[in-house]
Amino acid sequence: MKELAFIVVKDSEFYKQYFEAKAERQKFHELAKEFFEKYDLVDSAEYYQTKFLGLKLTPDQKKRFDGQLKKYDDENGMSRFKQKSAMQKAWNEFVTDKINFDTIDKTQFWWLCLISRGSYNLWDKDGNIYGYIKDNYKETITLPEYMNEIKMSQYYSVIEQMED
Description:
The protein is an alpha+beta fold. The protein folds into 2 domains: 2-10 and 108-163, no CATH class; 20-104, no CATH class. It is 35% helix and 19% strand. The chain is built from 5 helices and 6 strands; from the N terminus they run E-H-E-H-E-H-H-E-E-E-H. The strands form 2 sheets. It has a 4-stranded antiparallel β-sheet. Strands 2-3 form a two-stranded antiparallel ribbon. Strand 4 (118-125) and strand 5 (128-135) form a beta hairpin.
């Protein structure tokens, strides 16, 4: 087992892509919030960040959208609207047509080239991007050139500062 913490090099392409993806995700969530308010879905706090409209609906909401929903909720208890439903079309027009999902996805699976099975985290504070990876099987992890290893104590110190 190997674990390590790192900081992303500020002038790297990954650094730039991380903040572009973060901004695009924020834009998505702001548009989604406006959409939910417009269509009286404010109680639906859980939803997918995808092109299809999938969210947790109350029983009353399910009745209201009867005929527009797929027959069964998915494994996460999320209701999905049919592709040609009025709500899905509104979702596309109001939200997803204004989002660049390629930008969002650029850094989504950053950890796949580093670990096989384990855990990972990536977050930012004060213009720095911090990360953590742990591989349950490997004894070594080789970071790419745009990531510099830091001491675990430094990593946890920043987390503690955020919690205060």
